[in-house]
């Protein structure tokens, strides 16, 4: 729920913005006054998000990029700065789910694929985002981990490992940049109404609902609310935090 214009004059960068949590967060930043750069694998995938951001009256920059490829990410961040002049908030949300399998049956290629996008991709984005924030003297980074970042998931070792590691990366970066006026936090979504959840459950959403103590799935907008709070002045004394927004799933 919007509470005003907390990001007027600021620039927000959202990865994995084509759908779900990324789209909702990009639109939420736009509604609160930010100029928004949105990133996903193709410009075509971002068309609906770009339209929704423009509908708020905000400026939007559409970027096609593979987050696991440093040269592409570096170029994307450079384009954000060239277009908007700075980078105030980075929401590193790009990620993929694993194919369910016990550890001994996980193909090495599958393991590498999940870690390459979820963990390496988050690190690569942070590397260039933080360098820009140091140059300008301020900034906020929020990374998408998961409730699976603080508990085990049967059949989901590669995904859980990547999301656990994102929390460690977040906490370490928060300490690295605490005196540089840069905050780094992580949001831990639970079972959310997204295309990823549809894929993971094979369309049987009730399986995911049954895992939620509150008896329902979360909405992408509820994750966006948490990200905006962490990114705004209301969260100015919060860094290195891993905040669960999961209906109690990870308890």
Automatic annotation (TrEMBL):
Keywords: NAD, Oxidoreductase. The keyword Oxidoreductase applies. Residues 10-195 form the Ketoreductase domain. Its EC number is 1.1.1.47. The keyword Acetylation does not apply. GO terms for molecular function: glucose 1-dehydrogenase [NAD(P)+] activity. It is an enzyme of class 1 (oxidoreductase). Belongs to the short-chain dehydrogenases/reductases (SDR) family. PANTHER family: DEHYDROGENASES, SHORT CHAIN (PTHR24321), ESTRADIOL 17-BETA-DEHYDROGENASE 8-RELATED (PTHR24321:SF8). This is Glucose 1-dehydrogenase. It comes from Sphingomonas longa.
